């Protein structure tokens, strides 16, 4: 039988996801088709293996960390809501959103939340601090075997030295934000849709 | 397979609704009675139809039945498309075309992007050059590939922009109108009731003719007559099989048709590719020895003219394989061999990496591009999802198979070009001609994991950005 992907997604669900993430109706249906095609087990949730089946992601040096970002603490499956919530971090920031009602909370694709996504790629144990070891781990993932431990260690030390303002030898989220204040996060951490 | 036809009857049994049970019994009894009266006439009509289609096909002629069928089909599908478009305009639900990309991707390199990211930061004087913002590049590319990637969707059927009245392609098209549904219902009856038995009969005749004919020709001593007869038998059988699929094939540039002693390479979409190509000439097939019905066919074919069948163990030995193929190619009297260098079926929207083995044999390569028209039937064999029998059943209950075959000018390996570069050159030519996307990803990714070497390449490039080359590595 042909897949009935879009018929499994109810209108109420689409509306809720729209409110939570800000994606449009057509974007949500397209991403649902994508979710469905990745879900080989057809159980309405994605596992880590489903992500690793994407070749372009498997060759990405930070592939495993990015996949990790989709799975909440200690869980092995992510449903469509969770999937969309994580993808929403990469939605481009639109100008008219800046005038939205402040009671609705910070949108998922705000500058702050984009930076938080990147911060969490480093901060594996979620203690809100990037320690020297955590930084080394990420560096090692990105360079492979091409740089020696000592050199990597000195790079890590220098990075922490530059960022650390309160002297605790680790980078907190506010220190992270300060270091990156000149970087155009909104543009670099956004993915444009074609419709 | 759509079971909607039997749904009504099975539903009434399941629900134990005795009234519907009685009604369906009543209906069945009457249908059977009707059939009994009409059966002899139907049988006669069936046989006549089979002969009318088969006999001209064997001699390469056509009575125009298939053409008329195709014309009616095209008109109906156009009407259906208009109806769906009108309906979606009325309801103001614009279904975005899935053949367009979802997200905007720029192909700027790793270096360019990371330099951009570091723009507003002063460069450190010594040591490595690392910025916390470097992860932005990798995370964005990673999430882009999660939203949309070039590879995974090549292993499943292409989504159509407009419904072609087959349940199997009904992904996003909901109930539109009563007339359309009735048309679809009529379509189901025609496809399963008339077309399917017709096609199965034709296919059975075709295959039996192949086995019988090639065995018969095999008794002749080796001579030119035998070669000519064997080619005739092969082509006739494939022509009957093509009618058995209601295949309409358009050949282009036939002056470039593969000659004896050459190697024909083509993009692979389904096992039917063999029937499509062999309709126009004889080829020597290459493949693995199978058991069962396939084995019988293979053994019969080999009696009439040399094909190359490998035992499973032999296929592992690359040198043996190359030697046998080379011996065959060097004999200028033997038919050109047909090889599909992708090694697996791809969904006919792209051409994936060509394995270099076929390009190391030497000899002239005759590239062929095959493009199916998905509007009439999806020819792609998703071997993970369907086995051979269900696949053939799907083929025989489609509307038709329409495809274009382009023969490309022959190519040979040039000076200073290794097998991989040659393979890529041929691949580009085929992709360009067929209007397919040229990918360098391996078709084997359908089942296997991607090799680590690609990731290591990226790591290497990034490492060079971190540490200058003059410092000790």
Describe this structure in words.
Chain A has 195 residues and is mainly alpha-helical. Chain A has helices at 11-21, 25-38, 48-52, 55-58, 63-70, 80-87, 111-122, 132-143, 149-163, 173-179, 185-188, and strands spanning 45-46, 78-79, 129-130, 171-172. In chain A, helix 5 crosses helix 7. The two termini of chain A are 29 Å apart. With 473 residues, chain B is an alpha/beta fold. Helix content of chain B is 50%, strand content 8%. Chain B has helices at residues 4-14, 18-58, 65-91, 110-117, 134-147, 178-218, 224-244, 272-278, 292-304, 318-330, 388-396, 419-434, 452-466, and strands spanning 247-252, 263-266, 284-288, 308-310, 337-339, 350-351, 365-372, 401-407, 437-438. In chain B, strand 3, helix 9 and strand 4 form a beta-alpha-beta unit. The longest helix of chain B is centred in the N-terminal third of the chain and has 41 residues, at 18-58. Chains A and B meet through helix 2, helix 4, helix 7, helix 8 and helix 9 of A and helix 5 and helix 13 of B.
Secondary structure layout:
The complex is a heterodimer of chains A (about 200) and B (about 475).
Chain A: H1 11-21, H2 25-38, E1 45-46, H3 48-52, H4 55-58, H5 63-70, E2 78-79, H6 80-87, H7 111-122, E3 129-130, H8 132-143, H9 149-163, E4 171-172, H10 173-179, H11 185-188
Antiparallel strand pairs in A: 1-2, 3-4
Chain B: H1 4-14, H2 18-58, H3 65-91, H4 110-117, H5 134-147, H6 178-218, H7 224-244, E1 247-252, E2 263-266, H8 272-278, E3 284-288, H9 292-304, E4 308-310, H10 318-330, E5 337-339, E6 350-351, E7 365-372, H11 388-396, E8 401-407, H12 419-434, E9 437-438, H13 452-466
């Amino acid at each position: 039988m042909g897949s009935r992907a879009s018929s499994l997604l109810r209108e109420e669900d689409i509306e809720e996801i729209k409110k939570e993430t800000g994606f449009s109706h057509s974007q949500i249906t397209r991403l649902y088709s994508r979710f469905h095609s990745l879900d080989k087990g057809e159980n309405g949730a994605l596992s880590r293996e489903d992500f690793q089946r994407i070749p372009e992601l498997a060759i990405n040096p930070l592939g495993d960390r990015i996949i990790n970002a989709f799975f909440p603490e200690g869980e092995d499956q992510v449903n469509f809501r969770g999937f969309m919530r994580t993808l929403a971090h990469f939605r481009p920031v639109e100008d008219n959103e800046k005038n939205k009602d402040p009671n609705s909370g910070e949108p998922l694709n705000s500058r702050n939340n984009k930076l938080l996504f990147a911060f969490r790629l480093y901060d594996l144990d979620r203690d809100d601090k990037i320690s020297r070891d955590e930084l080394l781990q990420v560096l090692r993932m990105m360079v492979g075997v091409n740089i020696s431990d000592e050199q990597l260690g000195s790079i890590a030390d220098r990075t922490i030295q530059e960022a650390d303002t309160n002297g605790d030898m680790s980078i907190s989220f506010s220190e992270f934000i300060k270091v990156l204040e000149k970087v155009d996060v909104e543009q670099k951490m956004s993915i444009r849709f074609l419709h | 397979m759509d079971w909607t036809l039997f749904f009504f009857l099975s539903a009434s049994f399941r629900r134990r609704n005795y009234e519907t049970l009685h009604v369906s019994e009543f209906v069945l009894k009457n249908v059977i009675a009707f059939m009994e009266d009409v059966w002899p006439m139907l049988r006669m009509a069936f046989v006549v139809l089979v002969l009318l289609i088969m006999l001209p096909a064997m001699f390469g002629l056509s009575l125009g039945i298939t053409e008329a069928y195709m014309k009616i089909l095209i008109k109906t599908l156009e009407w259906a498309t208009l109806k769906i478009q009108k309906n979606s305009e009325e309801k103001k639900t614009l279904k975005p075309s899935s053949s367009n990309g979802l997200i905007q991707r720029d192909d700027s390199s790793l270096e360019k992007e990371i330099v951009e990211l570091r723009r507003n930061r002063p460069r450190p004087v010594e040591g490595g050059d690392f910025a916390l913002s470097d992860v932005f590049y990798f995370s964005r590319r990673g999430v882009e590939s999660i939203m949309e990637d070039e590879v995974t969707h090549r292993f499943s059927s292409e989504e159509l922009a407009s419904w072609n009245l087959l349940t199997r392609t009904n992904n996003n098209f909901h109930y539109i109108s009563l007339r359309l549904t009735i048309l679809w219902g009529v379509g189901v009856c025609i496809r399963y009731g008339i077309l399917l038995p017709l096609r199965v009969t034709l296919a059975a005749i075709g295959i039996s003719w192949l086995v019988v004919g090639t065995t018969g020709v095999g008794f002749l001593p080796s001579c030119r007559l035998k070669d000519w007869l064997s080619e005739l038998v092969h082509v006739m059988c494939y022509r009957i099989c093509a009618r058995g699929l209601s295949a309409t094939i358009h050949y282009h540039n036939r002056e470039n048709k593969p000659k004896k002693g050459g190697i024909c390479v083509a993009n692979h979409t389904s096992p039917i590719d063999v029937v499509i190509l062999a309709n126009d000439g004889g080829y020597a097939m290459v493949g693995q020895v199978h058991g069962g019905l396939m084995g019988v066919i293979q053994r019969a074919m080999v009696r009439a003219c040399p094909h190359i069948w490998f035992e499973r163990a032999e296929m592992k030995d690359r040198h043996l394989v190359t030697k046998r193929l080379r011996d065959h190619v060097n004999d200028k009297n033997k038919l050109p061999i047909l090889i599909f260098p992708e090694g697996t079926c791809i969904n006919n929207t792209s051409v994936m990496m060509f394995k270099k083995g076929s390009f190391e044999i030497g000899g002239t390569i005759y590239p062929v591009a095959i493009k199916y028209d998905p509007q009439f039937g999806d020819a792609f064999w998703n071997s993970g999802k369907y086995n051979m029998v269900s696949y053939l059943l799907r083929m025989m209950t489609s509307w038709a198979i329409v495809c274009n075959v382009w023969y490309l000018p022959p190519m040979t390996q040039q000076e200073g070009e290794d097998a991989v570069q040659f393979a890529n050159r041929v691949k580009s030519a085929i992709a360009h001609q067929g209007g397919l996307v040229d990918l360098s990803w391996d078709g084997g990714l359908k089942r296997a994991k991607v090799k680590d070497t690609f990731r290591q390449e990226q790591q290497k490039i990034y490492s060079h950005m971190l540490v200058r080359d003059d410092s000790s590595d």
